[in-house]
Amino acid sequence: MTEAIASSWTTGIVREVERFGETYVRLRLEVADRHDHVPGQHYVVRLRAPDGYTAQRSYSLASDPADPLIELMVECLPRGEVSGFLHDVVEVGDELELRGPIGRWFVWGGEVPSLCVAGGSGVVPFISMLRYARRMGTASQLTIVASAQTRERLPYVEELEEFGAFIALTRENHGDRVAAHIYPDELAELSKGIERAYVCGSAGFVSFVGRSLGEAGVPSDIVRVEQFGATG
Amino acid sequence: MANFTRGFTGGARRGGDTRLPPGQYDTGATWPVLTAELTPTIDLDTWTMTVDGLVEKPTTWDWRGIHALPGSSYFGDIHCVTTWTKFDTTFAGVSVDALLEIARPKPEATHVMATSTTGYNTNLPLDDITGGKAWIVWEFDGKPLAPEHGGPVRLLVPHLYFWKSAKWITRIELMDHDEQGFWERNGYHDRGDPWLEQRYQGDA
Questions:
Q1: Interface test with B, best of A77, A81, A88, A212 (most B CBs within 10 A)
Q2: Distance CA A56, CA A97 (A)
Q3: What interface predicted TM-score (ipTM) does this complex get?
Q4: pLDDT in tens, A7-28
Q5: What total of structural domains would you count in chain A?
Q6: B residues 130-189 closer than 8 Å to A (CB)
Q7: What CATH class is the domain B46-196?
Q8: C-alpha dihedral over A24, A29, A33, A34, to 10 degrees?
Q9: Does the CB of A5 have a partner CB in chain B at under 8 Å?
């Protein structure tokens, strides 16, 4: 990784807003003085009240580094101070304080054959990876597994299906696959030949997948994880 | 850019509590789990804690040995760089001072590298882990520290962001210079004072 460390705050202008029911909002922003990101990195969004009070949260990027805009897919959490604002209030043309790209651990540079396992909105960093892989012609290096309760609750589900991601729904069938959590057998098959694994989701999901990867024979020292909690 | 965000006045988490460092919110009864690696399984029969590097007497304690040291506990707040703060936590274990009293730092020691069984590491100035400011802990709220929170044993440096409080700690090496640890190499601040909002590299 050779990207400059983004050390200062900048401004993003909201160019597109798309709301998906009550749960997700997709924001696409034009960023002043932008540094290219590496797939897997995140930005911090900071909201500022007129009296100076601030709230900030980190959101993974879904966009390809070559995209002229950055894309965030934000899950709206119950009483989420930042996610609720982004879902309910933000409009095209608004300016937001941003900082990024941040993080140089949960990143994929395109070379290492990797398995990515996502729970729910944990797919977001993998969308950046798959868009990058498609553009660079390295899609064969990337295996994506995405889990959610239902197809409707999985962000980017069409894009994932088109990419050939393995979709594991826990509350409804998906094609021939009966509703169930991801099985170690499935992970064993999907992890053949990988040199790295990325797991992104809630702490419980990451813990579950971590154990399953162990049962599937994936050594723990090639597994990189990213959890999110209810930090709204 | 306007000097505030249109339409934002602060949500339900806005408390105005003077115990909250800037940019933090009160996470209440929850304790989010955030790590870069999978939670390891650690066998207490083989677990050890080592203090070495620039010390007069490099020392290793096993599980029984470290429990034989005088106990010490912390009651207060903890702050994570991901913006949650947890108030009124109680941790119990042993003060890092007690380990250093035995290992005896050499005069040239200025910094430490704390290392976990997973290979995670984090750097700290020696001053930040001495003088009653840091602990090696194995109990949270009177119960054994859970593996996902760093159990059986983690470092606790509550006056700095919580990534400095290395989970699953096994070694503290004293050095005569500063050297970046895991998150510090990956974009986070070298010291991490929450009251100064030292979150990322480049923050003052």
A1: A81
A2: 9
A3: 0.78
A4: 688 999 999 999 998 899 999 9
A5: 2
A6: 148, 182-183, 185-187
A7: alpha beta
A8: 50
A9: yes
